[in-house]
Amino acid sequence: MSKGKSSKPKAATSRLLDQARDELFSHILRCGVLEAAASDQKEWFDDTMEYLAERYEGLNPRELESLRQLGERYCQPVISRSEEKEETVGATN
Q: 28 with 71: CB under 8 angstroms?
């Protein structure tokens, strides 16, 4: 019976983290953060994570840090395979 009790809070936290992640990605897309300079992105993430921490009080600092890392990785430019191939070829010559 105690197993059922311990799994409910974990599932609730997982749902809360999923909701916070979805909201973060939505904010990223609506606010144009993808095109912003790195310093502006940092400032935006500082403010947005503060907001999300208040909105999703059930998340612990480690979960909030993980959420921020997901958002920051989402904002990084994609390296295409052709660019990757050119870098490898240039390094061997």
A: yes
Question: What does the pLDDT look like over 9-39, one tens digit per residue?
Answer: 667 768 999 999 999 999 999 998 988 999 9
Q: Distances from the Cα of 1 to the Cαs of 6, 7, 10, 13, 20, in angstroms?
A: 9, 10, 15, 20, 30
DSSP letter for each residue of 20-78: HHHHHHHHHHHHTGGGS-HHHHHHHHHHHHHHHHHHTTTS-HHHHHHHHHHHHHHHSPP
* 36, 44 Cβ separation under 8 angstroms: yes
Query: pTM for this one?
Result: 0.71
Q: How many CB atoms lie within 10 A of CB 67?
A: 21
